[in-house]
Write a structure and sequence with these properties.
This protein is of the alpha/beta class and 189 residues long. It has one domain: Response regulator (Rossmann fold, 3-Layer(aba) Sandwich), CATH 3.40.50.2300. The strands form two sheets. A seven-stranded mixed β-sheet has the order 3-2-4-5-6-7-9. A two-stranded antiparallel ribbon has the order 1-8. Helix 1 runs parallel beside helix 2.
């Protein structure tokens, strides 16, 4: 299967359901873009498979907000998805951020690898918020978000901090938990 068809097939799988396992071989520049597409599709799907407390929305028809800090290729894909789809019957707004202090009203915050040095400050600013933080840190010594993307066996996989989700007041679907490479802390019910 040619690369472009393979990319569309993987993205279609990610958008149609969560079982996306055979994806994202990061061996060339075009495959790297593919990795960003898969991560963005997962972020969008996390929005559909995580329950937030009602107080996170400013009004009944308020949009679902995804904030992106330091991951422009992922933000571009999320913006395209947001134009085509809704999350939990809400329109999707994608905000590209320059500073961590502007993210308090987002339901999901994606923190790119280039911003990993600021992750502690971002986590501190979101301590009282019901926000799903998604990261792509690669070193074990670095802090991670509630969801952290990793590459294993040339595939995009993710780890979940179930305790962090619980502290944020988030309920992660068992479907997502079952796909995680690793779940830290007690699994949610």
């Amino acid at each position: 299967m040619e690369l472009l068809s393979r990319r569309r097939f993987a993205l279609a799988l990610a958008l149609g359901g969560l079982p996306v396992r055979a994806v994202a071989q990061a061996t060339s520049a075009s495959d790297e873009l593919h990795e960003h597409e898969v991560k963005a599709a997962f972020v969008f799907k996390f929005g559909e498979f995580v329950d937030w407390p009602e107080h996170v929305y400013s009004a009944p028809g308020a949009p679902f907000t995804i904030a992106v800090l330091g991951a422009d290729p992922i933000a571009e894909v999320l913006e395209q998805l947001g134009k085509q789809r809704r999350i939990n019957n809400r329109p999707v707004v994608v905000r590209r951020l320059q500073r961590a202090e502007t993210i308090a009203r987002a339901q999901i915050v994606f923190i790119g690898a280039s911003e990993s040095d600021r992750l502690r400050a971002v986590a501190e600013s979101l301590k009282a918020a019901s926000t799903l933080t998604v990261t792509e840190t690669t070193r074990a010594s670095q802090p991670t978000g509630i969801v952290n993307f990793v590459i294993r066996d040339n595939r995009v996989r993710f780890e979940i901090d179930a305790e962090g989700a619980d502290q944020a007041g988030l309920k992660i679907s068992s479907k997502v938990l079952s796909l995680a490479l690793l779940v830290k802390g007690p699994r949610q019910k």
